[in-house]
């Protein structure tokens, strides 16, 4: 993934492009928090809460066997941070939905690019069954 910060030149942001097909780039992630929400900043400098969500990955050849554990960073704009997010603690079950993006990060002196979900929805509690998401 690659990207650039919209509106970084003149202070105005261009309209979001229409996607073809519609509603492309919508991600839903369920898992457990690996730690408490952390403060952070978006690419435009706005305050966000960062959630690291861990989830199991099934073996592609045998769907009932655990292949590995993975994690994804979820970026929640502070304007969307509700009481649910502020009260979350490590180990809590969460559902996050939003758009997949990427961020440059510096960890242990190394620069890398990681995928993040920019959340428009975060719910705590056990994940819903799949048909609840379609309603």
Descriptive labels:
single chain; disordered N terminus; mainly beta; OB fold (Dihydrolipoamide Acetyltransferase, E2P); 5-stranded mixed β-barrel; 135 residues
Structure description:
A hairpin with a 5-residue loop joins strand 2 and strand 3. It contains one helix and six strands, in the order E-E-E-E-H-E-E. It has one domain (27-126): Nucleic acid-binding proteins (OB fold (Dihydrolipoamide Acetyltransferase, E2P), Beta Barrel). The radius of gyration is 16 Å and the shape is globular. The model is unreliable at 1-8 (pLDDT under 50). The protein is mainly beta.
Percent helix range: under 10%
- Here the CATH topology equals OB fold (Dihydrolipoamide Acetyltransferase, E2P)
Going across the biggest sheet, name each strand in turn: 1-3-4-6-5
CATH arch. level architecture: Beta Barrel
N- and C-termini, Cα separation? 30 Å
CATH superfamily: Nucleic acid-binding proteins
Question: What shape does the CA trace take?
Answer: globular
Question: Which CATH class?
Answer: Mainly Beta
Number of spatially distinct domains: 1
Order of helices and strands: EEEEHEE
Average pLDDT level: 80
Q: Give the C-alpha Rg.
A: 16 Å
